[in-house]
Specification:
Radius of gyration: 21 Å
Largest sheet: 7 strands, antiparallel
Number of helices: 6
CATH class of the largest domain: Alpha Beta
CATH topology of the largest domain: Alpha-D-Glucose-1,6-Bisphosphate, Chain A, domain 4
Order of helices and strands: EHHEEEEEEHEHEEHHE
Number of strands: 11
Shape: globular
Distance between the termini: 40 Å
Structural class: alpha+beta
Helix content: 25-40%
Mean pLDDT: 91
Low-confidence stretches: none
Length: about 250
């Protein structure tokens, strides 16, 4: 068994939940990056068919997984084993949630790393692959990268009341709680950058980018409640909204 956490990735599209669901399922072959991420490579096709995900190439087929949940406009879940035996599966679930802006928040979660011979390596590879997949999905939805489609925040960290009076906060064992928080933000796809400020001892800044507009309260909750180093007074944090006008 392994205690590796699921991969969670989000993207916001300018579609209704039913349209976003249809794009992900009925039109899978229109946008999936087959030349980079498939069994047969360029020239193949892939589709949901009869409760399975099937790639086809010149008369050959490869089953990538089987559907376990099918709720149009809400969720699709499936086992996942492209190029692997059907008895060694991980699990993927994709949720579709309407936002007040008329957009849809699409959340993909991938778990079940114990199915792999090297769970850590497999997780690392998928951590690189899923952003490519969701970028193609977003593009197919007519949703180019747009800084204004996200909530950006700057977290300003300074030593809190429980920080050591002498010595570096970065060498204190309790700093590990903050490092774990940053790792969770990276796994969720929120972390843009983090590091110490060179002109103020013990302080640092973290930039988070959450898909969708108006999620400042979500970012504040993450910064103050999910980070144990802040909850226990090791760090104080100021959560500041940031308007990004341009990004690469």
């Amino acid at each position: 068994m392994t205690d590796l956490s699921p991969i969670r990735r989000e993207v916001v599209v300018e579609l209704s939940p039913h349209e976003a669901f249809e794009l992900f399922t009925d039109r899978l072959g229109d946008w999936w990056p087959l030349s980079e991420l498939s069994v047969f490579g360029a020239g193949s096709t892939v589709a949901f068919a009869e409760g399975r995900i099937v790639e086809t190439f010149e008369g050959r087929t490869s089953v990538w997984g089987s559907v376990t949940e099918w709720e149009p406009g809400a969720r699709v879940s499936f086992t996942w084993h492209p190029g692997r035996p059907a008895d060694r599966v991980s699990l993927v679930s994709v949720g579709f949630t309407a936002r007040a802006s008329g957009q849809t928040l699409v959340v993909l979660e991938h778990s079940g790393w114990e199915a792999f011979d090297d769970p850590g390596k497999a997780r690392s590879e998928y951590e690189q692959g899923w952003p490519t997949v969701l970028a193609r999905y977003r593009d197919a939805a007519g949703q180019p990268p747009d800084p204004s489609a996200y909530t950006w925040v700057a977290l300003m960290h300074r030593p809190g009341p429980e920080a050591p009076i002498e010595g570096s906060v970065f060498e204190d064992p309790r700093f590990a709680h903050h490092a774990q928080f940053l790792s969770r933000m990276a796994e969720a796809g929120y972390l843009v950058a983090a590091g110490p400020m060179l002109d103020e001892s013990g302080s640092g800044m973290t930039i988070l980018r959450l898909p969708g507009e108006g999620r400042f309260d979500d970012a504040t909750r993450l910064a103050t409640e999910d980070d144990r180093s802040v909850r226990e007074g090791f760090f104080d944090v100021a959560v500041r909204p940031w308007q990004v006008m341009m990004s690469s």
